[in-house]
Design goal:
By secondary structure, this protein is mostly helical. It contains 3 helices and no strands. The mean pLDDT is 88. Keywords: Membrane, Transmembrane, Transmembrane helix.
């Protein structure tokens, strides 16, 4: 016959094992999320650099096309100002916020699904 102390020891070991498994799962999900956020920041930084160089190229092209050293930069600056004003107007739009949230959930959520499928 099993002792009550043996049963309690077995139950304690089972609970400890389950807790350790849950801890490992949480650590893996945090690691996955952290790596996706890091990747998102790196991609964002690279996109900003691309935007900067394309903006400079457009400004220089417009300046040479219009034969005015400042007009190309003025036009590009006004284009950015127009984009800022448009984003300012739609900042409270529920559909705009929903689209951004869905995009981020999709980007981060697919990473978790891919990570789980890689484990299996």
């Amino acid at each position: 016959m099993l002792n009550i102390s043996e049963i309690t020891q077995t139950i304690k070991k089972l609970v400890e094992t389950r807790i350790n498994l849950i801890k490992q799962d949480i650590q893996e999900e945090i690691l996955t999320l952290t790596s996706r956020i890091f990747l998102l920041v790196v991609i964002g930084g690279l996109m900003l650099l691309v935007l900067l160089f394309l903006s400079l190229a457009l400004a220089f092209f417009l300046s040479s096309y219009l034969e005015s050293p400042f007009s190309g930069f003025l036009i590009v600056g006004l284009l950015f100002l127009l984009m800022i004003l448009i984003l300012y107007k739609v900042r409270d739009s529920k559909s705009f916020k929903q689209n951004i949230q869905n995009g981020l959930k999709n980007f981060i959520g697919t990473a978790a699904k891919n990570f789980k499928s890689d484990e299996e």
